[in-house]
Amino acid sequence: GAHVVPLDVDGIRAGNTTEGHRFMGIGRFTVTGFDDYAVKLKRAKVVLDTAEREAAIWQGAQNLAFAAGMEVVADPGLLTEVAGLVEWPVPLMGRIADDFLALPPEVLQTSMKEHQKFFSVKNPRTGRIEGFVTVANIEAPDGGATILKGNQKVLAARLSDAKFFWENDLRVAKAGMGEWVDGLKAVTFHNKLGSQADRIDRIAALAREIAPLVGADADDAERAARLAKLDLRSSMVGEFPELQGVMGRYYALEAGEKASVADAARDHWRPKGESDSVPTDPVSVAVALADKIDTLTGFWAIDEKPTGSKDPFALRRAALGVIRLVLGENKTLPIAEPIARRVRILAESRRTAEEQQNFAVLAQMLQEIEEQK
User: What percent of the chain has pLDDT over 90?
Assistant: First the structure.
C-alpha cells in the first residue's frame, strides 16, 4: 500500500490527509495515492486539473450567453487567469446597465477585464457588448443572485469612471483636440530628443516625405501623424494604456477627420509584435514607417543602441516593423534616402565629436545600401 514519505517543509509535516473547498468541503480526509486524491478532491468541490477548470468556465459561459441569445467574446488570456483563481468554477451572467451601452466596446471589455476579470458578452443583433460573465468559486444557495448583485454594483462604479473619462475626452475631441496638442509640449519624450511635440513635428515631416513612396496623400499623411499620438493625453488612455490608438481613432472621427486619417491613429502602432498584422492603408503605412524610422534614427543618434540583453526603447521591434512594412508593400521602397536625410538633419544638431562620428558611420551604411539596389 501507499506510505507517507517523512518530509518537513517550513515546519509543515507531510501526511496523507488533506481538505477540499473552504466552504463546500467535507472536512479532512485521507488519500491513498494521486488518483484517489483527485477523485476525493472533486467530491470535496475542488477541480484539480487546470484544463478541466478552463473547459468548465468556457462551456458554462457559452451556455449562459447562448440561452440569452448572446455570445461570449473569446479571451484566452483571461480564461487562463480566471481558471487559476477558482477551485470550483460557477459562471454567472449579468447585464450591463443601459447608461453604459454607448461606451465603445473596447472600453467596456478592457474595463471589465482589467478591474473585474469579467468576460464580455456580445449581442449579435446590435454588435454591442451588453452583458458579462463572472466566475464565482462557490455554488450559492440563491443560485448566485447575491454574488451577481454585488458584482453589478462594483461594475457600475467602474463603468461610471470610464463613462466620465469618455465624456471628458469627447468634449476635447469635438473642440479639435487642441488641449492635447498643448499637453504633449509638456511631455518629455527623451531628454536628448526633446518633447513629444518635437517628436510629432519630426514624424509629420517624415510622413509627408514617405507618403508619395507608398501612394498616400502627403497632406493626409502629415495630418494623421499630427493626430496619431494625441490620445496619449486622453483620460481614457491614462487609465487604460493598452487602448492607445483604438481611442485615438474614435476621437479623430469625433473631431471630424477623414476615416483614413483616423484609422492611422489606431494602426500606426502596428505591427506591435510578430503575431500582429501590418497596416495596409497608405496613410497608416506612411505614419507607421515615419514613427518607427524616427525612433530608430533618434536613439541611434544619441548612442542608445540595443545590446544583447537590453533594448529599453524597443528598437529591435521598430526595425522589424520597418522591414515588415516595406515587405508588406511588395515593392522596393527607396526608404534609405529619407532616412539618410533624417540622419543629416539630426547630425547637424549634434555637437559632440562622438555623435558626429556615429552619424558618419550610419550615413555611410545607408549610402552603401542605396548603391547595392
Answer: 66
